[in-house]
Amino acid sequence: MKKSLLMFVLSMALGLSVFGFNLVLTGSTTVLPIAQQWAQAYTAQHPNVRISVVGNGSGNGIKALIDGLTNIADSSRWMKDSEIKLAESRGFFPFPVVIAYDAIAPVVNVNNPVRNLSLKQLKEIYEGKITKWSQVGGPDIPIVVVQRDNSSGTHEVWEGKVMKGSLVTSGALTVASNAEVVRMVSQNKKAIGYIGIGYLESSTMIADVAISGVKATIANARAGNYPLARPLFMITRNVPGGEISKFINFGLSPAGQEIVKKVGFIPIYSLK
């Protein structure tokens, strides 16, 4: 009885409801605004389709995909070798689709005058070697480091491209989403964090910090000038078909890519 109930719950989650197809997307909070807007636009055109979108981190989305609890894993990083091997052991191969591009922007409180840092300075701030803003041209106040949690794809990219194997200071504050980074930095003039480019306009109390004079913009990311640019993915079990394929194809269409641009991210191709 319990096994039958579990299978029923899984079937409902994966879209086998008799009331219509349920499409479940789980994962990256960076991809979340895109996924939410795609879902809204798609269901407006297909009212019989019900879509659930959950933002709980890239790692959690990939885990849900491997466990058979989501149709699509939203991810702001590529899968780890261990995740791919685990997926293969479960009888499927992950199929990634690049749905947009992003640039990770360091951010500070708007009342902090620091607007430019090098990758070396960012690394030393997050290592705890630089502990006051006065050491990098700011006011004589301590630096409060805000980082993302380990399930975050944004965290993975920051670890690889900024920290390069070094440990983040034990005094860092860890949060679970881009929105939480924005909230903490906007409320604390001592804080520094990092967010996806699509979240830059979400608060008038944060300011982005250029990296060695290069700002996180669509033009700089497309041109390859910005060091923290990255692709954003939707990952499925094997090559998608049916409603999953239709939804992703909608997202890759000009209408879907206009939404990518509207929410502040970088479309995969130039739009007229």
What would your notes on this structure say?
The chain is of the alpha/beta class and 272 residues long. The chain folds into two domains: 2-100 and 232-262, 3-Layer(aba) Sandwich (D-Maltodextrin-Binding Protein, domain 2), CATH 3.40.190.10; 102-223, Periplasmic binding protein-like II (D-Maltodextrin-Binding Protein, domain 2), CATH 3.40.190. It is 37% helix and 23% strand. The protein is built from ten helices and eleven strands. The protein has helices at residues 2-13, 32-45, 58-66, 81-89, 119-127, 153-163, 178-187, 218-223, 242-252, 254-262, and strands at residues 22-27, 50-55, 72-75, 94-109, 116-117, 144-148, 173-175, 191-196, 206-208, 210-211, 229-237. The strands form two sheets. Strands 1, 2, 3, 4, 6, 7, 8, 9 and 11 form a nine-stranded mixed beta sheet that branches. Helix 6 links the parallel strand 6 and strand 7 (173-175). It starts with a helix and ends in a 10-residue tail after the last helix.
Please summarize what this structure is.
With 272 residues, the protein is α/β, with parallel strands linked by helices. The chain has helices at 2-13, 32-45, 58-66, 81-89, 119-127, 153-163, 178-187, 218-223, 242-252, 254-262; strands spanning 22-27, 50-55, 72-75, 94-109, 116-117, 144-148, 173-175, 191-196, 206-208, 210-211, 229-237.
